[in-house]
Amino acid sequence: MESIHCGSVAVVNPDGKVVYSFGNPDFFTFLRSSAKPFQTLPLIESGAAREFGFTQPELAIISGSHNGEPQHVKVVEGILKKIGLSSKYLKCGTQPPLYYTAKGILPRRGERFSPLQHNCSGKHSGFLASCVYHGWGTKNYLKPNHPLHQWILRTIAELCEYPAKRIQVAIDGCSAPNFALPLKNMALGFAKLVSARDNSTPLSQVLHAMQKYPEMVSGKGRLDYALSQINQRKIVAKAGAEALECLGVIGPSYGMAVRVLDGNNRAVGPIVAEALCQSGMATRTEVEKLGKFARPEIKNFAGKIVGQIKPVFKLRKFSR
Q: According to the model, what pLDDT value does residue 251 have?
């Protein structure tokens, strides 16, 4: 054994009861991009999504962290066109598209990127849509005290059943406000997400968009997409930075939140796969379909397999 990654797991039912855990289910951390499905809700609740005629792929990309591929850029451009704005209004910054890492390739020398390719451009276009609909200014749409982010804060507090005044707010990698709360409350939010079956509710609209268009939530080569392809598409997952993974499993509905304490993403896949098996939310055969995410192989520079990453934890089970 060479390196050890420590972390926490919380599995919660829609009533807020912790049914499985490892480590500290009360670990207090930021939701990061796992907040995106919840950040979409005010857009739908207000009527803005209906007013602009947003489609399920568009709601999925607003709720996701896309790969920055041409298909993703096209959808984000479509959202901006519907609201009468251009990419210059996006304040998410630029980054090498995530598909470079997912496909194991490097950007070309001198290659330049657009904010449209940023994994958060969908979310930001959704923010801008809310601002246009309500007549709020678009220049300061990322201020924590902006009406939209105060609405999002209240939404997360209600959905995750954690007092808004105790949620800590900081700035995410894309400059948007982000929210910190206990791991088990994040899991509760995702348990409620996958429990929302009625098509008339905003939460169910987010669920069905993410479930039907997982390629817009992330993209091929990503853990979120791989999880959506097993278990008869009953898993809806949304990763966050610093080795956070939140997901919901449909029927019976449970939410799971995993956080690796050192922020190393290489440990996330094995932990999620093992937790799904130990909790009975997926079979060994199903998680084997996750391939490299469930059992990552360590290769040296000559391409030789010299090790692997293995989960060695045991979930604690609570009476349901």
A: 85
The pLDDT value given to residue 176: 98
Which residues, 6+ apart, have CB-to-CB distance to 142 below 8 Å?
A: 91, 127, 149, 175, 176, 177
Distance in angstroms (rounded) separating the CA atoms of residues 299 and 307: 7
* Per-residue pLDDT tens over the stretch 59-102: 999 999 999 999 999 999 999 999 999 999 999 999 999 998 88
Backbone angles phi, psi at 30, to 5 degrees: -85, 145
Whether 280 is covered by a domain: the verdict is yes
Segment 253-273, tens digit of pLDDT? 999 999 999 999 999 999 999
Q: How far apart are CA 179 and CA 193, in angstroms?
A: 18
> Strand 235-240 vs strand 254-260: parallel, antiparallel, or unpaired?
unpaired
Contact (Cβ atoms closer than 8 angstroms) between residue 89 and residue 81: no
Total count of domains within the chain: 1
Check if the beta carbon of residue 180 is closer than 8 Å to that of residue 28.
yes
244: nearest Cα among 228, 231, 256, 233? 256
Q: Give the range of the structural domain holding residue 199, as residue numbers without chain letter.
A: 7-317
Whether 222 maps to a domain, the answer reads yes
Instruction: Supply the CATH number for residue 115's domain.
Output: 3.40.710
3-state secondary structure (DSSP) of residue 105: coil
As a whole number of Å, the CA-based R_g of the chain is 19
Query: Is position 12 within any domain?
Result: yes
Residue 197: which pLDDT band, with cuts at 50, 70 and 90?
confident
Structure tokens at 268: 């996330």
Helix/strand/coil for 248: strand
Q: Is the peptide bond between 252 and the residue preceding it cis, with omega within 30 degrees of 0?
A: yes
Closest CA to 276 of 221, 320, 234, 242: 234
Q: What does pTM read for this prediction? A: 0.96
Residues in the chain: 320
Longest dimension (CA), the chain: 58
Q: Let me know if residue 1 belongs to a domain.
A: no
